[in-house]
């Protein structure tokens, strides 16, 4: 609707002869780059018409003019505020990573030497150590949770499970050279509650679990991820489900309500956006997380892209490629804010409650609050 309205308004402005200065923000070039253009709509149309024959019948409008407006509409779709949230955040200055030098073409000889030294340090020194630490952390997570799973359901089992989870996640965080700053730790999620946070990367789980243990909810996977899920579920009440199975989804809702009603169980960790956003904004929260009931503990996570881009573009990179980018970055630096607990107000439905929590997270993290 936004694009259609823009195109219609532009056509009406031109046909009615209004002198509106609708600047063209972008021009698509052959190389595939998007470059800004300062010319007006009328000036570009005049330039296009110079190379076209005039219509035999009087009038200035030609059918080919429609292609101009179609192109402008497509450009508006490509550069809209939603699509931009699924690409990496632009940097103000180059951070000496090859993957981020697209907008910084000029590289001097001195800078090239510094970049080469950085490549040697990151790939030859840091990466092997990081992979070793991450492997140790994942291995211990499988072994430790499996061993704890054989214990009887006593308080000792719960304590050991939390200790194993936090210890292994901290080892994995060292494997990514994570530098995490936690704020307002007195507001940390408590047992029987629901922790909701903005979602940028699978690493969000590692970041939050460094400071406490959570019961996780997610889709069942196969392969190495499936091994981890099954091992973790033996020692801790994580909830894994098949997204395509409607019966399984209803069962998950019931299990979530039962979990929240038990004040002795770990807080549930949820990402209501349902997908990874590039850490510049917070998109619409799905209302299902706020229909369960219980206390909501909002958490805002903000990464510093200057040291490494934590955003996972799942349409461009698979999990292995993404993790390789993480271990070859300089570091993963982020801030985590624990916000005061929130409850659903009287007369407030789940959608309104979700939007209120989303606004609080966006404001604290310095993120754009989007309603999409």
Automatic annotation (TrEMBL):
One of its GO terms (molecular function) is glycerol-3-phosphate O-acyltransferase activity. InterPro entries: LPCAT1-like, Plipid/glycerol_acylTrfase. It is a multi-pass membrane protein. The keyword Transferase applies. GO terms for biological process: phospholipid biosynthetic process; triglyceride biosynthetic process. It is found in: Endoplasmic reticulum membrane. Keywords: Acyltransferase, Endoplasmic reticulum, Lipid biosynthesis, Lipid metabolism, Membrane, Phospholipid biosynthesis, Phospholipid metabolism, Transferase, Transmembrane, Transmembrane helix. Pathway: Lipid metabolism; Glycerolipid metabolism; triacylglycerol biosynthesis; Phospholipid metabolism; CDP-diacylglycerol biosynthesis; CDP-diacylglycerol from sn-glycerol 3-phosphate: step 1/3. One of its GO terms (cellular component) is endoplasmic reticulum membrane. The chain crosses the membrane at residues 106-125, 132-151. Its main location: endoplasmic reticulum. Residues 193-304 form the Phospholipid/glycerol acyltransferase domain. PANTHER family: GLYCEROL-3-PHOSPHATE ACYLTRANSFERASE 3 (PTHR23063:SF10), PHOSPHOLIPID ACYLTRANSFERASE (PTHR23063). Belongs to the 1-acyl-sn-glycerol-3-phosphate acyltransferase family. This is Phospholipid/glycerol acyltransferase domain-containing protein. The lineage of its organism: Eukaryota, Metazoa, Chordata, Craniata, Vertebrata. The gene is LOC109882767.
